[in-house]
Design goal:
mainly alpha, 403 residues, globular
Length: 403
């Protein structure tokens, strides 16, 4: 849409521009959280499928694998061809593949549609995050990036409840919510334009056509990616496994599971709010504190004897998780210039998604080898504590490297 882009080329981004780029992040939350309350139903539905205990959770996390593999490609496409035009097309593909399981009965085909969701989800997540980095600068950019993670967190509360309520009508019903992608596409059409490098001495082209990696800050960015992969395994554990944990503690109604998990997950937006008061602090120091909170929450979950104590552990865990994600995102985006921002955002989103994909695999492996799900939570708590120790040791080393 050249005319729209031209009309907006020299405008300042406003509140509605930010909102139009915040809301699509909920589509990534939808891909996993909306379906979490119906996971026990799907496990029962496909119990005759060989290795169903591995395959059924992949319905939630196959999109994350696609994001892990394709987010860097999405970033390259955004840097070369421009962000907005690809983003608009991605909303259509996301909605089409998202509702497909409603009409399918074979688990293999359902998993195939989840791959399609993941392809377009990768484009949506990378390009919206990149465009926030393009439009906004300095503290304003950090606030919008933190707001993006807060939006995802708040939407998780809604989707936990919505998935549980719709799951009462059958496990297929929640998939209709994927049509909401069209509403978000309309907002992007109305309130955004193709971003251009802020260079008053040159006439920017419609698309940057930049494919060089020469100026990519690998030395500074690799520690961010490693921390993101490691941390995201912990971040998504409660979102994926809380429903199963509550089921094992005697809470079997999908609506109740969705409601009480969403109550515990209020910790995520609260954690994001706490982070917004701490902007400008050393990200590795914040990461250390957040991993300690995650470790504490996992330990309480592991020792829980009732749904109430389990949910208290979930809340503490999610409070740390709410601080964790904006810490990692702002740390990543602060390292990137315009010409490599798409690729950097893609690598970061890919790292986050790789941890998301690995999360149920890790939890299932730990459950099978350490006497069940609650022992797996304890093992994750120990691993988070080890990560906090590594972060503490790394703080002076990273400061020395900056000097």
């Amino acid at each position: 849409m050249p005319s729209t882009s031209s009309a907006h080329a020299h405008q300042e981004p406003g509140f509605l521009t930010g909102i139009s780029l915040l809301l699509p992040i909920t589509l990534s939350t939808m891909a996993i959280v909306l379906l979490a309350p119906i996971l026990p139903q799907m496990i029962e539905e496909f119990r005759t499928v060989p290795n169903y205990e591995y395959w059924v959770p992949m319905v939630l996390t196959f999109p994350a694998l696609c994001i892990a593999l394709l987010s860097p490609v999405a970033g390259i496409l955004g840097d070369y061809y421009g962000r907005r035009r690809i983003l608009l097309a991605s909303f259509v593909g996301y909605a089409a593949f998202g509702i497909a399981p409603i009409f399918l009965s074979d688990l293999t085909w359902i998993l195939a549609t989840r791959v399609g969701v993941g392809v377009f989800e990768a484009l949506i997540m990378v390009l919206t995050t990149t465009m926030i980095g393009d439009y906004f600068k300095g503290d304003r950019r950090d606030r919008w990036l933190a707001a993006q993670t807060a939006t995802a967190s708040i939407s998780a509360l809604i989707f936990f409840n919505l998935g549980g309520q719709l799951g009462a009508f059958g496990w297929r019903t929640p998939f209709w919510v994927y049509l909401s992608a069209f509403a978000m596409m309309a907002l992007v059409i109305l309130f955004t334009w193709e971003p251009k490098e802020d260079n008053p001495n040159a006439e920017a082209a419609e698309a940057p056509h930049n494919a060089s990696w020469d100026r990519f800050p690998w030395a500074r960015f690799i520690p961010v990616l490693v921390a993101t992969i490691y941390s995201s395994v912990f971040f998504y554990t409660v979102q994926i496994q809380a429903s199963v944990g509550l089921d094992q503690l005697g809470m079997t109604n999908p609506a109740r599971i969705g409601f009480f998990t969403s109550v515990a997950s209020i910790g995520v937006p609260l954690g994001t709010l706490i982070y917004s008061r701490l902007t400008g602090r050393n990200p590795v120091m914040l990461l250390m504190v957040e991993l300690v909170m995650l470790a504490t929450g996992f330990s309480i979950m592991a020792l829980a004897q009732s749904p109430t104590s389990f949910l208290i552990g979930c809340f503490i865990n999610q409070l740390g998780a709410g601080m964790l994600l904006p810490t990692l995102l702002v740390w990543a985006m602060s390292q990137l210039d315009f010409e490599v921002r798409g690729r950097g955002a893609g690598l970061w989103q890919g790292s986050l998604a790789l941890g998301q994909f690995l999360c149920p695999v890790v939890v299932t492996f730990l459950s099978k080898n350490f006497s069940g799900l609650f022992s797996a939570f304890l093992a994750l708590g120990i691993a988070a504590a080890v990560g906090a120790l590594v972060a503490m040791v790394s703080i002076p080393l990273l400061r020395a490297k900056e000097v």
